[in-house]
Amino acid sequence: MEQQQEENRVAGSEDLFCRNCDKETEEAEAVRMEGRVPEWLEGRVTRNGPGMVQVGATHYDHLFDSLAMLHQFTIQRGRVTYRSRFLRSDSYTNNTQANRIVVGELGTVAFPDPCKTLFHRLMTNFFKLPVPASVMSDNCLVNVCQARDQMFALTETCFLRRLDPDSLTTLGKKEDISNYVAVNMATAHPHIDRDGTVFNVGCSFSLLNGPELRIVRLPEGKLEGARVSATVVSRWRAALPYVHSFAMTKNYWVIVEQPLVLSLGKMVQQYATFGRLMNALTWLPHENLRLLVIDRNTGELLPTTYTGPPILLFHHINAYEKDGHLVVDFSCTNNKSPYNCFFFSNFRKLDTDPSKVFPDAKACRFVLPLYIPAKGEVGEQLVTLKDTTCTAIRTDGGEVHCSPALLCPLTFELPRINYQRNGQPYRYTYGITSGSDLYLQRLIKLDVVTGETWIFHDRGYVAAEPIFVPAPGATEEDDGVVLSTLLKINDLRYVALLVLDARNMKQLARVEFTAEGDVTFPFHGQFVDPRQDVHAY
């Protein structure tokens, strides 16, 4: 029986995702290099993700709660160096000074403050804002964004932190987005336009209208001058729809309002009883997905109501306009409680089903017809685009119900593209898929036209989110390199920069380092070439 349990175990999950880093790495030189870094490749790869899992004798319960750690590879004239640094958030400072977890996170409850009674907590916070800043953390561990000269660490609360792009030093005090524009929280997946303008989706609460989704515009990526470009009222009055990312084309923004919501009533309950904020996340089983299409020129929501099946979407891949249709590609799962998968207790179970550790996401596509005839029959197929199995059916309620098509049968998460094709017709996307040692381990390239895939896999190693960097003067979409971070399952201090030929996913170079502390798995990141004025994803 014990042998069977060991065979069913998600190999390496505990060793990798339960790592605790307690030491930063100053500028480290490579201990070994395989191959050669292309001469034209210069810049910084900065990644963000979990770092410190344990503070004193207290331990975080959830992967997304760990104190943020930044990783950076600097490439200059063929030489590569590595550094890591903890984000000096207020959460980090308060916890490390107390030598225990005193600031709660999404899935971890902190020790309650004995000086604050229940009445005091409610009067000073929940009767001011439906989403009080006091229950939000500035532990920005999800992503980084640099459009011009300013870099920010991002999470999904109202807070973000400024960073020195070269040293990763945390600069100044935490920034509260709501001090600049009327939103209570924002995503960690903004879009960067060609002129350096940053667009993001924020959630807000209006006493008149209830929850609202807002497109926020940041000129040159700066908080100063931020303004709301569009506002859409949510269909739910007492819940904030959970939005992790969105899509942007030349003329449209696309927000998926999925039936995973942050219940305001449950938030009050969890806050009042010192519970987990995650318990306020609620799946609405009888609700469909709704795709909100906003005209970028007017800021108005299109009059057509587009719906879809009740799937859960974390990451958009790309979207583009073609022949009167809007093509929206994304990574989705049928797992209705995705955040519950990432508790550390799940990683330690010997009999864990892999689908319970990670949501088994697939690359899928919606096709939305943009021009709907005023009259037509119920059940009419409105998609006229060729070479697609996607459907959009007119319903008796006047809505257009869209069914997605599967782009690839393999697991596909943390998707990236050649960002020069963002919002435009494209062919290739890069992501992470399952491997022989770990559920998310291998790098994958997908041709979204033919379904052909290319795989990079080195057993015993785990690759992080791929980042595409185009070659100078490239004319082909996949002419460039894919950058990833390699971790070694049985070596806690091993970290490497992996450089692949984006055309065939073959290794061009591997630059290896020995870190001062355990190397943790990063979530998202960005490549920045300092020789360029505008930086993108």
Can I get a quick summary?
By secondary structure, the protein is mostly beta strands.
Note the main attributes of this structure.
single chain, 537 residues, mainly beta, six-stranded antiparallel sheet, six-stranded mixed sheet, 9% helix, globular, disordered N terminus
Roughly what fraction of the amino acids lie in strands?
35-45%
Structural class: mainly beta
Low-confidence stretches: 1-11, 117-133
**Which descriptor suits the 3D outline?**
globular
Give the proportion of residues in helices. Answer: under 10%
Structural Rg:
23 Å
Number of strands: 39
Major sheet: size, sense and barrel closure? 6 strands, antiparallel
Helical stretch count? 7
Overall mean pLDDT: 89
Could you give the distance between the termini?
Answer: 48 Å
Structure overview:
This protein is mainly beta. Helices cover 9% and strands 40% of the residues. Strands 2, 34, 35, 36, 37 and 38 form a 6-stranded antiparallel beta sheet that branches. It has a 6-stranded mixed beta sheet with strand order 18-19-22-23-28-27, with no helix packed on it. A 5-stranded antiparallel beta sheet has the order 1-7-6-3-39, with no helix packed on it. Strand 37 and strand 38 (506-514) form a beta hairpin. Mean pLDDT is 89; it is low at 1-11 and 117-133.
